[in-house]
Amino acid sequence: MDAAEWNTLLRLHTQGVPGGPFMRHEYLHALHVSGSATPATGWHPQWLTLWRSGVLHAAAPVYAKAHSYGEYVFDWAWAQAHEAHGLPYYPKGLVAVPFTPVPGPRLLARATAARDALQAALLQQAAQARWSSMHVLFHDASDQAILQPPAWLARQTVQFHWHNTCRSPDGPRPYRDFDELLSQMTQEKRKKIRQERRKVQQAGIRFEARRGRDITAADWDFFYRCYCQTYWEHGNPPYLKPGFFEAMADKLADWWLLFIARDPTGQPIACSLIALSDDSARPRVAYGRYWGALQRVDSLHFEACYYQPLEWCIAHGVERFEGGAQGVHKMARALLPVRTHSAHWLAHPAFAQAVERFLQREAASLDQQMARLQQRSPMRAIVHKGAPGA
Q1: Does CATH place domain 161-337 in 3.40.630.30?
Q2: How does DSSP classify residue 384?
């Protein structure tokens, strides 16, 4: 697949609105050539493309999966149910960016008709390959419009995102600084954040932010040590190989931001890696991706992964910071719950019906969870001018 053709299709699909490096050819290609997402690791590339007169009109990054690792939308129970009834669940079809739970476009197309044809081709591909199922993960609204019942079953999960929207009495505007963000939070949460930041400061830790070509080869090497350390501490081998990050440094450097924590002697001890929505001076969105530490310092994780990135976002006019998959603890750091979406097709009619009933119950439970989370909002009420009682 030619990189220019794929990226042109992506640009046309999104109408030029950048959405991070994740669906770019360079990112997906790096996952493969680095050995991170390959048949040897259970990711069999089966990319689907639609052409007319030699022009690429639609495409999707499809993988035949031999497991459900690295997806962040969990279907282990579905696999166990298939196996319990003597039916293989793997291989299954998956449309996703490996190891990357960031919402965005998945079915790229030049026009609505091409997107419709691509959706139909996905089902045909799954049937011909005799896959148990096909899954489209973390898709956006344009995909959701065509991934509809009865063929596709909708599923929602929760992530936590921060928006650069100060609720001033005169109306919404971007935050001026981190202190103004704190002023919008409840006293309990404001006090907690200040305590956490104070612990890091009292430990003599200082941070520096490096972006793009300012991130040196030594910085990338140090980041990878931290990244691996965190995975091994949680009992898992790291998904991404060194070659992936080498490719990012070479091909997509300006899409990345690295925060490095140094101890009082100046030695680096931790870092967090943030992806950006584009390579401009003022990206619209930042995405929390990876972090790691070689030393334990109380509250260092919160400082590296939330407070430093949020300060940077405010200073650079970034509109949104997406904190990644899972983590209710992010709410206490001003990241609020949002729904993310996936779509699922199952070949076996009885299992499709059973999963549909399960998803209906899960959706009702999610509605209740969202209501509870909204009641626990860390943001205090703001009285606007002209409102009753103002």
Answers
A1: yes
A2: P
